[in-house]
Amino acid sequence: MARLWKRHRADPYEARLEAERRRFRASTAAPLRRRGTLVPPEPDLQLISASIGPDLSLIALWTAKTDAPAALTSEVVENGVRMPRGRASWPYRAILTWHGGSGADSRGPLWIDDLDLTRPIVQPLPDEGLLVVSARCRLRNGHPEHNAYVYGAHGFVERSGSVGDGIEDVQVSPSGRIWISYFDEGVVGTLDWADHPDLTPIGQPGLVEFSAMLTPIWRYAPTRGLGFITDCYALNVSDETAWCCYFPDFPLVRIEPELGVHGWQNDLRGVVGVITDGRQFGLVGGYPPYGDRFATAHLLGEKLELDQIYRLTLPNGDALPDQVQLMSRRHRLIALVGADVYALDLDDVRQQAG
Fold this sequence. Notes:
- The protein has 354 residues and is mainly β.
- Helices cover 9% and strands 46% of the residues.
- It has a 5-stranded mixed beta sheet with strand order 1-26-25-24-23, covered by helices on one side. The chain has a 4-stranded antiparallel beta sheet with strand order 2-29-28-27. Strands 3-4-7-8 form a 4-stranded antiparallel beta sheet.
């Protein structure tokens, strides 16, 4: 979600913010490494979605430039606010490609006909299946529309389901555990959901695990010392362990199959991404002026102890552009600028610090 603040120049808040900007610009740079450029499998295609799989492959979804308006369609809702729709203006043909990762070389492009979800989030499933989800879910005759499709290896829909509105991220573990995080609109219920107070939003817990049949099988419930999720800013499914960081207190939380839920206090606010090797952590982003912050940390008792704060940059030292998609999975941060791919691993930062 975009979180914007508008203040008058003479406001003392703006003066303090500018002072913070100057101090932060003096931070040690953590340059991203250029990994390449995503190339469409056919001419005249437009990139409409990208995500990271459990093997760290980058999954790109393309459609014809003439169909891109349908795939990216939005609508004006109350108070003139424009937001993505759940359903496309018309069904469109999409092509999926894999880049990098352990299994990318063995998987050729996958064609999906008649896809009708907007701004789809794509994740691979075991046995070469595919999960495609739209972040928005409207109600039809008082029932949630289906905004998640499971495709087989040949690109045909095998089943569909409703996985809720206001989806922030979708990540699937190597074994097929489906984790979905939600931003505030999915937690509290807006639009059609707000008109049905008797209908509990699917995303109310903020983080939900779904079965292969797209039904909820686990819902986040905070343990002692942790608050409820109002907006799940960051999710990282590393192997079979899920890590998250959420508003308002931004604790670092680990969910493991055997050990359950455990959280650590975190002093940084506005964190939008977490990367980890299980021992060391990288926290990505923050509220202005820390949008390109990268902080390394380790666990110490019940607290996440900060080690070093860096400023993310492009390889040549330039600032990250405003239009950048940041994705976190396992120990890797991916920055997508248009079709150009940049990355930062925890080992890169360790080598720089050493």
